[in-house]
Design a protein that fits this description.
Rossmann fold, 10 helices, six-stranded parallel β-sheet, globular, binds nicotinamide-adenine-dinucleotide
């Protein structure tokens, strides 16, 4: 239980609620519990033991099994919706209608129709809706974006990204299309589609082509895919699989993430699970003053894998989850636009939906798409 007595920040704190106390909610809720500018008022989960565990672990003041009861509280300013994909739209709309700002996990929704309903609720309520892409606050991804923005590698024309891991059992909600809305595109590609759009300043996407399928499992959704995104000035190649057996050489984890960003003057590599996690290659030798030797790496402490908790491999001041929530809180406080609002989340989802259509029709799909309930 957090006490506010005597704390000068107490009356300025924004008051948070968390919907869903499952896997990734640990990262959200831990971050909220670490932020002096936030008071973690309540958490909710249909599984009472999970909600109670979060009270114990992160110092939330109240636990609910019924989200409506939590949303009825008038002392909650914003909520994090960290439930499975099928509950992103209904619970986020409910929360917006209850007058709460909402940070919702990716993918924003299952369909563009749902995304539109969320954007309409965002507008009606006058509250902020942000779709969580934590890598926008990851030190290596953030640094790469800053370098691109200041022209360090010239005009970006090619981004190649892969996210691959191994999920042993397909008997989980991620592989149930009614809950997940899809496989690796909705779960893995979504991150790099978002980062591609973010890097390029949310450009107009001209077309999307995707090859994907269930190639190395008995899942009911695609386990492997490659998706190409075409804008007028760049091509993004987003690949991934949740059935790749490849231990990471540095930490033994079955998780791989590489991003290569090429511009007219050089290339940036991001490998968040490796050290260094950021490298910049410039072939004209004219390095900006803070780069040296052709590559740079942000200061990241190396923590042996067995000593890591979730997100523990970041220096505390660089923890992307804290950075993300801090940004959201600042935007609420100062009424500033969030980095990834409902429309941005929809733009990401539109690429994924075009990817699915491309897979069905075996052709490149021009955007924009008509919003249909798939
Ligand atoms: N950004 C990332 O790196 C990342 C990583 C993992 C998951 N995610 C996303 O986060 C979301 C959650 O994934 P997860 O792996 O944590 O799932 P999870 O199944 O572990 O957690 C979901 C929780 O929501 C609870 N829940 C279900 N219905 C509810 C309701 N009506 N009210 C309150 N709680 C309810 C469940 O009981 C469960 O505890 C998904 O959308 C997923 O795509 C993002």
């Amino acid at each position: 239980m957090r006490m506010s007595g005597g704390d000068p920040m107490a009356d300025q704190r924004l008051r948070a609620g968390v919907i869903g106390c499952g896997g990734i909610s640990n990262s959200h809720t831990k971050a909220l519990s670490l932020m002096p500018e936030v008071n973690l008022v309540a958490v909710s989960d249909i599984d009472e033991s999970r909600a109670r565990a979060f009270v114990e672990q992160y110092g939330a003041e109240h636990a609910y099994t019924n989200v409506d009861e939590m949303l009825a509280r008038d002392d909650i300013d914003f909520v994090v919706n960290a439930t499975a994909n099928n509950l992103h739209a209904p619970l986020s709309i409910k929360a917006l209608e209850a007058g709460k700002h909402v940070l919702v996990q990716k993918p924003m929704a299952l369909t563009l129709v749902e995304a539109d309903a969320m954007i309409a609720a965002e507008k009606r309520s006058g509250k902020k809706l942000m779709v969580s892409f934590f890598e926008f606050f990851h030190p290596a991804f953030k640094r790469a974006k800053e370098l691109v923005d200041r022209g360090a590698i010239g005009d970006v024309f090619f981004v190649k990204a892969i996210m691959a891991w191994y999920t042993p059992s397909t008997d989980v909600w991620r592989f149930d299309p009614k809950i997940s809305g899809g496989g690796i595109l909705m779960d893995g590609h979504v991150h790099h589609v978002a980062y591609f759009l973010h890097l390029l300043g949310d450009p107009v996407v001209e077309s999307v082509y995707s090859e994907h399928g269930t190639l190395n499992s008995d899942a009911r959704v695609e386990d492997t895919g490659v998706t190409l995104i075409r804008t007028s000035r760049a091509i993004g190649e987003i690949s991934g699989s949740n059935r790749v057996l490849e231990p990471n050489a540095q930490n033994g984890r079955l998780f791989k993430e590489w991003i290569e960003i090429s511009g007219s003057k050089g290339t940036i590599h991001i490998r968040p699970t490796e050290r260094p996690s950021l490298r910049v290659f410039l072939n004209d030798g004219e390095l900006p003053e803070d780069l040296s030797g052709g590559w740079i790496a942000p200061r990241l402490e190396w923590v042996p894998f067995h000593e890591r908790g979730r997100s523990a491999h970041f220096n505390p001041e660089e923890d992307p989850w804290v950075g993300e929530h801090r940004h959201f809180v600042e935007c609420i406080r100062e009424d500033k636009p969030v980095i990834s609002n409902g429309q941005f989340g929809r733009n990401v989802l539109e690429v994924l939906m075009a990817g699915y259509q491309s897979g069905r029709e075996r052709r490149a799909i021009p955007l924009p798409l008509a919003a249909v309930a798939r």
